Amino acid sequence: MKYTISLSLAMAGSWLIWSGHFQIWDDHFHHYFILVLGLLSCLFCIWLAARMKIVDDESAPVQLGLRPFTTYFPWLMKEIVISNIKVAKIILSPRLKLQRRMITVTAHPKTELGRVILANSITATPGTISVQMEDDKIQIHALSFEGAEEELSGDMDRRVCKLEKNQ
Amino acid sequence: MSIAIEILSWIFLVLGSLFSIIGGIGIVRLPEFFSRMHAGGVTDTLGATFLVVGLLFQAGFTLVAVKLSMILLFLLITSPTSCHALAKSAISEGLKPALDNADHASKTKAADRDLSEGA
Amino acid sequence: MFVVASLSILITMALALIRAMMGPTVFDRVLALNMFGTKTVLFICVYCFASGRTDFLDLALLYSLMNFIGMVALLRFSQIGSFGDNGQEARP
Hints:
The complex is a heterotrimer. Chain A is mainly alpha-helical. Chain A has helices at 2-19, 29-51, 67-92, 112-124, 148-164, and strands at 101-106, 128-134, 137-142. Chain A has 5 helices and 3 strands. In chain A, 26% of the residues are buried. Chain B is mostly helical. In chain B, 86% of the residues lie in helices and 0% in strands. By secondary structure, chain C is an all-alpha fold. Helices cover 78% and strands 0% of the residues of chain C. Chain C has helices at residues 2-22, 26-51, 56-80. The longest helix of chain C has 26 residues, at 26-51. Chain C starts with a helix and ends in a 12-residue tail after the last helix.
């Protein structure tokens, strides 16, 4: 039930933001007409999602709260900036000093959502791409950081575990 | 105050342009598919982030800023997903990534050096 | 200053097109196509500020959605050979 509520709140909020019809009082009739149309489209989308049986903890991850945006996301942006600068140096160096390797790390998050967050964060930092995922092993294609990838992935793994704990 | 914001926005836009061009150079220059994907990641993450942050300074606290940051969030979530899907389907199609191990790398580097000196 | 940003985005798009033309495998072309789509979204954002018409941002979001869904559909098609009608997943 809480997932349905959070999904409908998110849908109504994004409809309001993208249409820009904020004011409640308006002299024109068509303003209310458009508001009703938005409400109907939100209801239709929720009905579709319920019919597809995708209203669960993955489509509306309310159990994570706001912590992904307050703690995890700033740290991830910092790591993305650092590894971007490294990859840019490699690209611009006159001789491409590549040390391409495939490494395998173990993913410790228990839920599927946590693993998806971990794999996506690994891919989002340039220089490491998660290629394949079987059970709890993630195969990573690494460009050339001389062993720094394992540390980074391990750090990410710990932070994602902390994120999904005490839900 | 507004001049400071202009300068900040200018800096971020130029940085974003720089990183996106670097990614473009990388996608042409790097030797094989799996390393080219890293170059695509540079433009998708940092280039897009800096460009949109530069535009955010221009927009100020308006509805446009909210829309821009939603576009940025969407790009940051979807681009690793499609990148991973691309890598996975390339692996399952049988495309082998070219690897250079530590001992093997020194040999190839030596061979490269010989070649470049000869040329 | 928007001229600088849009010019650099256009240069990046041109480089991606070069890779899409040169690309030895199909996946290189798909990668270049993906990058081209992302750059298009950014270009629409920059153009919206340069021309002062903020309606264009909606088009940017729509384009990024279409880019993502088209990419996933294309890869799924290349992997399974169909759009999921008689693929691996059983229908409920």
